[in-house]
Amino acid sequence: MQQTDMARRQAALLRLTTGIAAATDEADVYRSMVNGLHDEALGYNFLGAFLLDQASGDRVLQASMGWPDVPRDWRVHRGQGLSERALQDGQLHYTPDVTRAAGYLPSLASGSEVDVPLRVDGRTIGVLVVESSDPNAFGAEDFEILTAAANQASIAIGRARLLAEERRRVDEHKALLDTMADLSADLELPRVLQAVLSRAVTLLGVTGGEVAIYEEQAKQLVVVASEHIGKDSTGTRLGLGEGAMGHVARTREPLIIPSYHEWLGRSGQYADVTVHSVMAAPLLIGRRLVGAIATVHSDPNRVFGAEDLRLLTMFAPQAAIAIENARLYQAARRQKQYFEELVLNSPVAIVTLDKSQGVLSCNPAFERLFGYTQAEAVGRNLDDLISTEATRAEAEEYTRQAFDRPIHGIGRRRRQDGSFVDVEVLAVPVIVDGERLGLMALYHDISELLQARREAEAANSAKSQFLASMSHELRTPLNAIIGYSEMVQEEVEEMGQTGLASDVTKIRTAGRHLLALINDILDLSKIEAGKMELYLETFEIRTVVDEVVTTVRPLVEKNANRLNVELPVQPGTMRADLTKVRQMLLNLLSNACKFTERGTITLSIAREQDEALRGEAIVLRVADTGLGMTSEQMNRLFEAFSQAEASTTSKYGGTGLGLAITRRFSQMMGGDVTVMSELGKGSSFTVRLPATVAEAGS
Fold first, then answer.
1. How far apart are CA 359 and CA 362, in angstroms?
2. How far is residue 412 from each of residues 226, 349, 399, 554, measured CA to CA in Å?
3. I need a labelling partner for 408 at 20 to 30 A (CA). Which of 223, 233, 325, 379 fits?
4. 489/482 Cα distance (integer angstroms)
5. Which stretch of DSSP H or E encloses residue 256?
6. Predicted pLDDT at 698
7. What is the DSSP letter of 229?
8. What are phi and psi of 379, to 5 degrees?
9. Does residue 92 contact residue 86 with C-beta atoms inside 8 Å?
10. Model confidence over 408-446: pLDDT tens digits?
């Protein structure tokens, strides 16, 4: 009989072990352990498996046998019941007579109790409670069986939790993949933003939330999607640090707010919302801020924890990428629309070509200018469409060069009806990611402009030719007037008529002034007409300077100025047009004397090597301490008949031709004139000429 009982107990223990091992989840482990120990062969009639609630410290009933009136999910609070001892020290505790033990919860009128801890990874997670209605009902063998059962159940619970965690992570990963698949399938920004929020609400099981995007220029977050937060917050702007989303945007770290209305950092813009708890995270790509997301819950019993935060921080980077992709797509689409509208409405004819020089597209202005519709032009070679045999070589060369670099030119092209149009051409290569895909050409109709230019050039040429040919007729009577006035002055002085002598002097002075003015006008006209010639000769620079200084000395003294001349010890010679060099110096020194009073005028000559002139240069510089000029005045300084200010003419006189002629002479000899000036401090004019001026046509 004893052997039969032993066999039955062994069979019961085997069933217990098998049942625990076959449990599919943690709840099934508790049921299998309690049911297996309740086997008649083992004789345990009152059993309960309790799980410790870490937050409250309560023991929560997971499975039981023999306690008919115990409610489901029965809680034994902290400080109650004998089983708390096993939780505190992780050891088996035996109470032979429960009626004598303090703290016993009377589930039975009398009896004994064994409490065995359930431990996973060295941490007590619960307790197995076994009772008997008889005192002193348990012995060493029972302790061994119950401890073994608790240990096996603990191992199974640990395994079940690992499997549950793995399943949960797989489910989360799948949910995230599904989320990204859904988000990446749509590039319309408003829909993506709403989808991001809806997915986050579903994934976290919350009441609602918000999504905001970050505007870099304004340094603000703008709420672009809102769901079930107590109001529609779309359009709300938050500064960095303002509210939950502003806080995480500034810190770049997620945040849990257990009670939003008690949180000191809440925004005044959300004073009327009814949410209880908030969890927010920044939307980042690397460390670059894209926006922020906040999830909310209205139930005070729903407390956001570490797992919720982990889920949100897993979701946030994927959401940031989806939002950024949609924003980039929207920006690219807007830019595409902008350029399409720009091309469509441009008054300039625009055509794009592929690598084989076939027309890809053309705008309405191209259709109007050349008479081809887009349907007629697309696919055809551009040069076949708008060039003739006479212009074909030029057009093909433009096209060939434009595939490598921007080109600009003027030419004549043919319309569909056979008529011709003068055009300004600009062509640029189209390069994407380093690959040349084609080119874009722009054609501007300049027919009327060229005609007006031709007419203006013809009129100017006629004027210049007329003035140049009239030089003899204009100079002859003036020379006669000057000559006769000199003769009359001599006779009047011999007669002692001093009063008449001053009048005659005025006639002679006015005549010479008029002759100088006519000479300047004729010189300018000759230059414009192309009739001004250079008479090159080799001369001593010092001799020319001495002559000019002697000539200009009365003008220097007239305004009480001082003239400094700075020459090298051996200035040497130069080969140029002596008359024009002398006139240039006189023009510059005359201007300096005119606009300087009680100041210093400096004439300096130097020889320098000049890369632009490809050799030795003679540098003539005239500086003064006179009126000076503004940058605006200097911009029109070398224009013919122009002076720095209108008031200058009335106060100082002059025609405004001296500097224009000086520059033209300098350019004819291969040099140029530059100026530096500061209002109220004076001006400095520099003429750079080749030491040896090249012969015309060389």
1. 8
2. 61, 14, 15, 59
3. 379
4. 11
5. strand 255-257
6. 54
7. S
8. 90, -15
9. yes
10. 888 888 898 988 888 888 888 888 888 888 888 898 888
**Both tokens assigned to 690:** 């080749």
User: Torsion angle, CA of 162/168/169/175, rounded to 10 degrees?
Assistant: 170
3-state secondary structure of 106: coil
pLDDT tens for each residue of 594-618 = 888 888 999 999 888 887 778 888 8
Question: How far from the centroid of its chain's Cα atoms is residue 354's Cα?
Answer: 30
Which of 33, 40, 91 has its CA nearest to residue 62?
A: 33
Residue with tokens 């060099």, as numbered in its chain: 581
- Given pLDDT bands bounded at 50, 70 and 90, which one contains residue 297? confident
> Under a CB-based contact definition with an 8 Å cutoff, are residues 667 and 693 in contact?
no
Distance CA 350, CA 464 (A): 40
Provide the token pair at 482. 């000057």
Entry pTM: 0.46
What span, in angstroms and rounded, lies between the C-alpha atoms of 97 and 106? 12
Strands (E), 324-464: 349-354, 359-362, 407-414, 420-432, 435-445
CA terminus-to-terminus distance, the chain = 138
As to burial, measured by CB atoms within 10 angstroms (0-12 exposed, 13-18 middle, 19+ buried), residue 697 is exposed
Q: Decide: 593 and 561 in contact? Cβ < 8 Å.
A: yes
Q: How many CA atoms lie within 13 A of 164 on its CB side?
A: 12
Nearest to 639 by CA among 666, 674, 663, 621: 663
Average pLDDT over residues 30-36: 89
Tokens of 632: 């605006």
- CA Rg value for the chain: 52
pLDDT at 358 over 50: yes
If we measure between CA atoms, which residue out of 689, 693, 694 comes closest to residue 585? 689
Dihedral sign of CA atoms 401, 407, 411, 415 in order = positive
**Whose CA is closest to 627, among 591, 590, 656?**
591
Gap between the Cα atoms of 500 and 506, Å rounded: 10
Tokens describing residue 212: 């905001």
Task: Note whether 606 and 568 are within 8 A (CB).
Answer: yes
The first and second tokens of residue 655, run together, are 């025609």
Compute the residue count for the chain. Answer: 698
φ, ψ of residue 452 in degrees (nearest 5):
-65, -35
Side chain identity at residue 314, one-letter code: M
Give the HSE-up count for residue 478: Cα atoms under 13 Å, Cβ half-sphere. 17
In sequence order, the β-bridge partners of residue 407 are: 427
Q: Quote the pLDDT of residue 3.
A: 62
CA neighbours within 13 Å on the CB side: how many for 652?
A: 20
- Whole-angstrom distance, CA of residue 51 vs CA of residue 117: 10
Q: Residue 9: which H helix or E strand, with range?
A: helix 2-21
Strand-pair category, 615-624 with 682-690: antiparallel
Contacts of 552 (CB under 8 A, 6+ apart): 563, 586, 589, 590, 593
Q: Which residue has the higher pLDDT, 441 or 532?
A: 441
The answer on pLDDT for 126 being more than 90 is yes
Q: What is the pLDDT of residue 526?
A: 63
Q: What is the pLDDT of residues 219-232, one digit of tens each?
A: 999 998 888 888 88
- The pLDDT of residue 391 is 81
**For residue 121, how many other CB atoms are within 10 A of its CB?**
8
Name, in order, each residue with C-beta under 8 angstroms of 116's C-beta and a sequence gap of 6 or more: 86, 92, 127, 128, 130, 146, 147, 149, 150
Task: State the amino acid at position 474 in one-letter form.
Answer: L
